Amino acid sequence: MVPSLLGIGIAGTVEQNKTTENALIALSCIWVAAYASGIAPCGAIYQGETAAPRLRPKTNSFSQAVGQCFG
User: Fold this and answer.
1) Quick one: pLDDT band at residue 5, thresholds 50, 70, 90?
2) Alpha carbon 5 to chain centroid distance?
3) What is the pTM of this model?
4) d(CA 67, CA 8)
5) Measuring CA to CA, how many Å separate 68 from each of 6, 27, 56, 62, 71?
6) Residue 34 CB partners (closer than 8 Å, separation 6+)
7) Alpha carbon distances (Å) from 42 to 13, 48, 63
8) Around Cβ 59, how many Cβ atoms within 10 Å?
């Protein structure tokens, strides 16, 4: 993920033309695929499965809010 983010940052600072636009799209797709196959999506699954049914909406809301503050 880090190399694709660095590539996106570098491609975003150079003069924009068709080649850099295509590179940005390709690097963004690589980053999304790497993120989706990593550990990050497991947080939502874990919190949804471990919370008690009565507290699940409040637990999920709180944990998503805290995660977004740090994200």
Assistant:
1) confident
2) 11
3) 0.58
4) 24
5) 22, 23, 18, 10, 5
6) 1, 4
7) 33, 10, 13
8) 15
For residue 29, pLDDT over 90 is answered with yes
Task: Please give the backbone phi and psi of residue 42, each rounded to the nearest 5 degrees, phi first.
Answer: -70, -20
- For 40-71, what is each residue's pLDDT tens digit? 777 777 776 777 788 888 888 887 788 788 86
To the nearest 10°, the Cα dihedral for 44, 50, 54, 60?
-20
65: tokens are 């809010």
Interatomic CA distance for residues 11 and 20, integer angstroms: 6
Query: Residue type for 29, please?
Result: C
